[in-house]
Specification:
This protein is of the alpha/beta class. Helix content is 50%, strand content 21%.
Length: 137
């Protein structure tokens, strides 16, 4: 199951049913059973506090993913997304907000599926996977 929440802002996903189905299909394509994914949309400040508290990082980010899975073949987690950062990134990368938001949504799922972005090579591979799923939306 995929759920969408807003924490300290008012935000609604465009086409929520289509988006949930797309996320579920991506999970299946990656070989995982989707247990529970909670997407929490928030502000820069809210996500900065999570970043400081749980990761000891003092900087803004667009997404933080917490893996709650107890089984190897299931996806379960909480994915926090800064709507402020997504909006800024959309402008920076010359793309529309909805496309950038979908990229970040799938980015969180890919982290739970084992993809990393800690090096340039891994970032490139993850970006290609994001592009693949974006084309299927």
């Amino acid at each position: 199951m995929v759920s969408f929440f807003s924490e300290d802002i008012d935000f609604k996903v465009v086409n929520p049913l289509k988006t949930k189905k797309w996320i579920k299909n991506a999970s299946i394509s990656e070989g995982y059973e989707l247990s529970q994914l909670n997407y929490v949309f928030c502000s820069d400040e809210y996500l900065l506090e999570i970043n400081k508290q749980y990761l000891d990082h003092d900087y803004f980010t667009d997404i933080i993913t917490f893996d709650n899975s107890e089984e190897d073949n299931e996806l379960e987690g909480d994915i926090y997304i800064s709507v402020d950062r997504v909006r800024d990134n959309a402008a920076t990368f010359h793309t529309d907000f909805d496309t950038e938001m979908r990229r970040v949504l799938i980015h969180g799922l890919l982290h739970l599926a084992g993809y990393e972005d800690s090096s340039e090579a891994l970032k490139t591979a993850m970006r290609a996977k994001e592009d693949e799923y974006l084309s299927l939306f």
